[in-house]
Structures are given as structure tokens and as C-alpha cells.
Amino acid sequence: MKGVRLRVRDPSTDVIPEHHGARRKSRKYLLPTPTSHFIAVLCFLVFIFVAIELVERKLPTPLRLVDAPSNPGKFIAERAMNHLMRLTDIGPRTTGSYENEVLAIKFFEEEIGSIMDRAKPIHNVQVDIQKTSGAFPLHFLDGMTNVYRDVQNVIVRVSAKYAESAHSLLVNCHFDTVSGSPGGSDDGASCAIMLEILHVITQMEQPLKHNLILLFNGAEENLMQASHGFITQHKWAKEVRAFINLEACGAGGREILFQAGPNHPWIMQIYSESVPYPYASSLAQEIFQSGVIPGDTDFRIFRDFGHVSGLDFAWSKNGYVYHTKFDNVRQIPLGTLQRTGENILALTLAIANNDKMANTEKYASGNLVFFDFLGAFVIRWPEGIGLLINSLTVAVSVFCLFKTMKTSVTRDMEYAAYVRQLAISSSVAIGSLLLILLANLLIALTLTALGRSMSWFARPVWIFFLYICPTLFVPMVLVLVVSRWQRSMATSAWTLFQLYSDGYQIMWILILLTCTVLQIRSGFIALLWIFFAIVENFARTTVLRHWRGGKWLMLHVAALTLPFTQCLYLVLAAMSLYVPIMGRSGAGTNSEVIVGLLVGIKFGLLFTCIVPLILLVKSPERILSLLSGLFLIAVGLLILTPLGFPYSADPAAPAPQRFMIAHADRTFHDVSGNVKHHDTGYWIVDMDQNSPYTVKSLVQEMANVRLALSFIWKTHWIPGPPPMLPLPTELHLNKSEMISHNHKRLNFTVTGPDHIGVMLSPVPGVTLDHWSLDDQEPLAGPKWNGRDTYFVYYAYASEPKPLTFSFDLKGPRLSNRTTVDVAVSSHFMHGPAKSGVRFRRFLSQFPPWTDVTAWTATYASWKF
User: Fold this and answer.
1) Residues 527 and 389 sit within 8 Å (Cβ to Cβ)
2) Model confidence over 807-858: pLDDT tens digits?
3) C-alpha distance from residue 52 to each of 3, 343, 811 (Å)
4) Nearest to 198 by CA among 240, 237, 146, 155
5) How far is it, in rounded angstroms, from Cα 104 to Cα 218?
6) How far is residue 94's CA from residue 829's CA, in Å, rounded to a whole number?
7) What is the maximum alpha-carbon separation in the chain?
8) Among 291, 467, 502, 720, which is most exposed with the fewest C-beta within 10 angstroms?
9) How many CA atoms lie within 13 A of 560 on its CB side?
């Protein structure tokens, strides 16, 4: 055949070619590799998985009150837990409620007062209760304008009594909760940790070099209102040079540093050098800031409105309890408080005593690529250095590819033939990822059609059988099929293996180049794979060039153990985050498909070091039979048994199905102001793809459920009795005036409960030009029937205060036609008005494996 150098050889055997170090053909080095060797490699990978799980679950031994005398200056977890129990005993603390505005404030005054009484005299400790009002645009949830009145902050400032600094470190948490949740982890535990940090620091014999400000804010769940009030209005805000934000989207486990900056790499450097238990990743930062995770934190407020850099921490494990009734102290081990407390205490002291705080702008430039290795230490480098590292790594990797090609051309085949086979192998490597995604998509759609979706929600082990096994099976089959044709060109299984290893290497090079060009810092993942492949190439061709057979396989596995371990560590952390999120991603999202695709792309890339090995296995069909058998058995169990039920009511490990239900009163007015439609019932916001069908046979009223169209896709409506409304919600047009022939100004007053939404939508041809809510250009939301929409969220935290505002419209013929639709929604989120007797009777039918966030609401729309 053209392009192939003919060599005399026994076609019944396959030997390692000379370019792999062989000087003679010996039966000792015959291929293929025994199947048992491949199974041993798979078992070794399982061992790595178990080791990572142990690292994930390892927490430090908590210190108790009896340990305090022998551990001066140390964080005491039991004391923090006592704070947390007292705070959560108050119950849910919704902004505007008595629990949040009176009882929680009283709790902090008492605890902080007790700490101040015992503080060492070298510390100057001040406390301030701030009531603040304001407005700001928020580019979150499609955009809105956030207006607040009288929300509260509890602020503590610690400084050196005789040498006060002009610079401060801010540490922030929030004590308010969503409706119905005790907020044990979100964010009561952070409050407890900060109280213990305050106690430890005020007991130290040495004062801080720079000031410490502890902000306990009372309106984070109201879309970050209280933090905005502090950073834009409080007298101490001007001295803040850096901040630490403590949050939660889960309970227990390890806190992850998932946002850092912007710029100011010195803060991240202090973190990596000071904390005893690091857990950080720029990959997590890019995932969060991409918007794929439905949430936001006060980090945005301090960054965007305070123009300050800092660090954002959150617990992410056990996200099932986030924003539910299950978020209580039982979900938070003492070891979690100890770990986070020790980390944040060490970080606080390191930043507050650092000289860079006096001139932070001098050290402002640059961002870091960072990640921790199994929680042991942080690896980091500046973005600029990362560009150089990436470029050098790509160059050396390409050199290794050409070196391998040169050797193969010399020994096995001509240059053109080798290039052609390498191109085919690279195409198969990239194509295998696409085929994995297609296979997992088909599996997900089939399970959805069979009514067996989200089986992995409460038991993530199902993901292994349903998606990870096919993710390994599919590329192996593809490689085996294509390589069978390639055997006429490549004379050795080792050559074929090298071709596919290089093919996957080319794929990683392309990924790294893309990340470098687009300045994606998580490109460090591709960098790891390429770097260690270079190390293996160097060892195989120089120091260990005589190794082959079983020894060579050990070298290959050893060289790729570190990148595999680090990437599996990141993948498992991501899975523990996004699996619970699928329970609140909305019914318009097919969670089964999303999980199947995410697993496919993550594990498809992870298995790139394993797939080429199938070419060396004596009986690859045994491996394929094992993988396919596991998959088919799992599917059979899902179809024929109840083992795949998605939800759990186990108090020790709850995984509830979420519902958001409003007992609503809806009124629609025509252009004359007359009521054209009015109804009452239950509005159900479906939080996952199984809603509301899982409870249809258990809740009597579900027999009348119907699909309801709204901005939130998708929702359902059940006709029902009118809700109890102790306070009317009213919209009053105070004034309508023509500024000019094409310029109209409307002035309104809205009254109602302490959580109100106002929606504005000018008719086609009319634009909303300006309003009195803030001094910025009105922030538009999503389109509605092709029209602009504007959403205003209004909340007050103490005495009822009406919202009075005006806005300007521009367009032709404004004086004698409808120019704008206005809608007002009101929400009774706490107290007796939250649910009436009939509403509670309806809610009592939901099974224990559900969590229902329920409230009473009204909606009314007008045309002006």
C-alpha cells in the first residue's frame, strides 16, 4: 500500500516498535495488554474517587467551651453554635417582619453588648444600628430597579484605642431569611461565626493594625438592599479598603472561595498564605459569574457600588436545604463551624494587619489564576504570567508531537500517512465528545418520556450508571471501530495508541489556546493535562526509555494521576453544587437533559486519558460488556422499581421537591378603568420539571390545575377561594401632565404591604425616558409581546410607607391614547396575613418530601 514501509513480521503477533525502545522482538513484550490490567486501572481511578470523597468530608475537630482556657486566641465552635441556636430560635426572619426588625436586632444588641463588656481595653469597639433607604438598578434576574425604605444594619467597628487607622477591612453577613426558612446556614451560621470572631479579636492583647468593620445586614434576601445602604451611605463605608463576604447556598461541609477581586491579587495571596484549610477555584468564579447559577450575593454590591475588592465565600454542600424549612442547625456540624471560623479568623487577622491596606491602589492591578490541590494548598499565578505559561506549554507540547511524529515516520510509515492518521485520530477525539453528548441527550429524553426523570436528585449514585458509564462506553466504541480501519496503516497497537493519545493532546491544545485568547482563567485545567503529558513524554523518551509492557502502563497512569485527581476533584465539587440546583431551576428547564450533558462534557474530558488504553486491551469487548451491563441494569431498576423516586423526606438527608405557591387575587382593568376580569386561586411556580405532577394524586385541588403563561416559564394556576387580605393594595394616579406635544409625565402613589412589585410597559412607539426612582437611566427588563418592560421592587422594613414616583414618556400623540400598561403586585410574606385558614388547609395536603414556600399575593393591572 502506498505510504507504508513494508516490514517482515508475524501478522499473528503485535510487538512494541523500536521507537518505543525495543531493540529486538521478544515474546516478553507481546501485545495486547491483559484485560485485568485495564480493570486494575479503573479500580485505581475508583480509589482516587474514594480518596477525594474522604477529603471532601474531612472536618477539623471542633473546639468546645471547655477547651477555651487552653486555646487562647482560637475560634471556639461551640460558642458560635450557641449564637446560631439563639438566632434560629427566633424563626424565619423575613425583611419587614417583627422577627427580623425587632427580635433579631435585639439578639445582636445583647450578644455584641456582652462581647463589648468583656473586651480588652486596648480595643475601641463601636456599634451602630443603621436604618437606611435608597434605590439602585440591579442587573440580575433580567434586570430591575430596587427601592427600599428603613432596612436595618447592625455594624460593629473594632480599632486600636490609641492608634486608630484610616483604613478598614469589612466582613459581611446577613441575618434576614427567605419566607418560611429558619436560615441556619443562609446566613445565620455566618452571623454566628462573625460574633465569635469579634469575641476572639477583642480578647487579644495586641490591637489590630487597621480597623475591622463587621456588617450584620438585615435585607440581603430582599436583593441586597441593606448592603447597598451601608456601602453607599454609612459614615464608615468610606474607609473600607477590602471586604470578606460570607454566604451559603448549602449547609455544612467546606466553604469555597468562589469570587475574588476585581483585581487586587494581594488579597488572594494573603488567603493562600494564611488560611489553614484552603478551598478555592477561579473555575468556580467563572461559573458563578456566567449566570448559570441562579443567585447573587452582596459581593456584587460592594464591587459595583462601593468599588471595593474582596473575597466571596459560601458553603455549597447539601444545597437541598438551601432556602427551605430544612435549613436548621441540625444540618450544620460543629466541624463546619470550626473549619470556616478558623479560616475566616486567620484571613481577617492577616488582612487587617497587612501593610498593603494603607495603600491598596498601589497593588490593584492584575487578576490571578488560582485553585487548591485537595484542600492542602493553593496554586496561583498572575494572569499575565499565565499567558506566558500557556504559550510555552503549547509550544513544548507541539514540539513533543513533532518529535513523536518524526520517530514514527522513521520507523513505521511515511510522513503524509502519519499526518493523515493523526488528523483522523484528532477528529475522532473531538467527535467522541459530540457523540457522548448525543448519547446522553437521547438517554435523558428517553427517561423523561418514561416518566423517570431526576432519579439522581436524592441519590446522585444513579448518575454513575445512567451517564458516566455511557460517557466511557461511547468513545471507546468509536475508537475501536475507527482504529480497525486504521490498522492497515499503523503496524502496531502501540502506534495506534500513540496516535489517539496525541489526538486527545491536540484537542487539549486547542482548548488551552481558546481559553488563552478569550482570557478564560479556568484554562488551567487544559494546562494540567498538557503539562503532565509532556512530563510523560520526556520520561518515556529519555530516563525510562527501556520501560515497556506493564512498566510502561504504570508510567502512563502515574503521569496522568495528578491531573486526573485534580480534575475529578473539581468535577465532583461542581456536581455536588449543580445536582441540588436542579431542584430549583424551574419546570421550563429539562434538568435530566442538563445533567446528562454536563456529566457528558465533564467526564468526557476527564476520560481522555483512559479511552486510548482500550486499544491495548486483549479483550476490549469484556470492558464494553461491563459498562453496557451496568447501564442496562440501572435502567431496568428505574423502570421496574421505585428506587428511582427523586425526593427524600429523611430529616438527616432531606432532598425535598420545592414548590412556590401564592394564594392570589388577580384583577385586570380596561382602558376606562373598569374591571374586565377578576379571579382568585393558587398560583404555582414550578421549581423542577416534575412539578406539579408528582403531587397531583395527593392534593385534591390539583385536579383543576392548568398551565399559566407568565415571565416565569412555566407556572400553573388552580382556581380557588379568595385570599385573606388585611391590607388593600392601591395604585393612585396623582397627576398626568403634558410637558410638550410628545412628552408626557405621570405621577403615581402605590400603597400596600412591605413587599411590592411595580411593572411598567409602554405601548409600541412610546419610550420610557426618565423616572424619579433614581438618577440613572431606567433599566429595562425582558420583552413582553415585543414591548419594553420595567420592573420595580419596593420594600419597607418598619412603618408602612407609600411609594410615590413619576416617569416620563415620549412618543407621538400622547395626549389622547393609551400610552403605558401599569401592573402592581403585593406580597404578604410574614405574619398572620401570609396564609389564611383555607390556604393552610390546601398546603397541609402536600407530602413530607416537599417544601412549600407559600404566601398571599395580589395582582392588578391598568392602562393609562
Assistant:
1) yes
2) 999 999 888 889 999 999 999 999 999 999 999 999 999 999 999 999 999 9
3) 48, 21, 62
4) 155
5) 9
6) 7
7) 99
8) 291
9) 24
Query: Whole-angstrom Cα distance, residue 32 to residue 18?
Result: 17
Mean pLDDT on 770-780: 92
The DSSP annotation for 297-338 comes to -THHHHHHTS--EEEEEEE-S-GGGTTSTT-SGGGS-HHHHH
Average pLDDT over every residue of 479-484: 94
**pLDDT score for 239:** 97
Do residues 780 and 790 lie in contact, with contact meaning Cβ atoms separated by under 8 Å? yes
How many whole angstroms separate alpha carbon 183 and alpha carbon 57? 22
H-only helix segments in 542-585: 550-581
C-alpha cell at 859: 395582582
Environment class of 474 (CB within 10 Å of its CB; exposed 0-12, middle 13-18, buried 19+)? buried
Per-residue model confidence (pLDDT) at position 547: 66
pLDDT of residue 14: 39
pTM value?
0.93
519 Rama class: left (phi>0) / alpha (psi -120 to 50) / beta: left
Tell me which residue of 298, 295, 175 sits closest to 229, measured CA to CA: 298
Contact 221, 178 (CB under 8 A): yes
Residue 649 buriedness (CB in 10 A; 0-12 / 13-18 / 19+): middle
Contact call for residues 247 and 346 (beta carbons, < 8 A): no
Contacts of 348 (CB under 8 A, 6+ apart): 169, 171, 197, 201, 212, 244
β-pair partners for 561: none
Say if CB 753 and CB 729 are below 8 A apart. Answer: yes
> Which candidate, 240, 99, 61, 76, places its Cα nearest to that of 176?
99
What would the grid cell of residue 583 be?
Answer: 431542584
Q: Is the peptide bond prior to 262 cis by the omega test (within 30 degrees of 0)?
A: yes
Which cell is 120 given? 480588652
Nearest to 682 by CA among 707, 706, 717, 722: 717
Q: Which three cell numbers stand for residue 317?
A: 454542600
What percent of the chain has a predicted confidence (pLDDT) above 90? Answer: 81
For 47-94, the DSSP string reads HHHHHHHHHHH--PPPP-GGGGGGSTT---HHHHHHHHHHHHTT----
Pairing of strands 743-751, 803-810: antiparallel
Degrees to nearest 5, angle at CA 349 with 346 and 354: 125
Tell whether omega for the bond before 714 is within 30 degrees of 0, i.e. cis. Answer: yes
Exposure on the CB side of residue 311, measured as CA atoms within 13 A: 29
User: Using 50, 70 and 90 to split pLDDT, how confident is the model at 804?
Assistant: very high
> Of 796, 798, 753, 793, nearest to 773 (Cα)?
793
Return phi, psi of residue 647, to 5°: -115, 165
Cis peptide before 692 (omega within 30 of 0): yes
DSSP 162: S
- For 659, phi then psi, to 5°, come to -135, 140
